[in-house]
Give the backbone structure.
Amino acid sequence: MKNSSKEHRRLEIKIVCAWCGRDMGEKDGAGVGGVSHSICEECLQREEAAVNRISAEAEAG
Ligand SMILES: [Zn+2]
């Protein structure tokens, strides 16, 4: 039989990469729980590379 003790659960916001869905950890939600979307290092670099390519193509016009 499991003893369910009163656990003081702090609300936390889960951070998830909006691009690949990678779990990026949690941060203190300051009383508000939920999910916050961010971008991980990998996707950030990929997005930056894509933006650079687009601007380079625009310059080449
Ligand atoms: Zn990602």
Summary: Residues 12-60 form one domain. Strands lie at 12-17, 23-28, 34-38. Residues 17, 19-20, 22, 40, 42-43 surround zinc ion (CB under 6 Å).
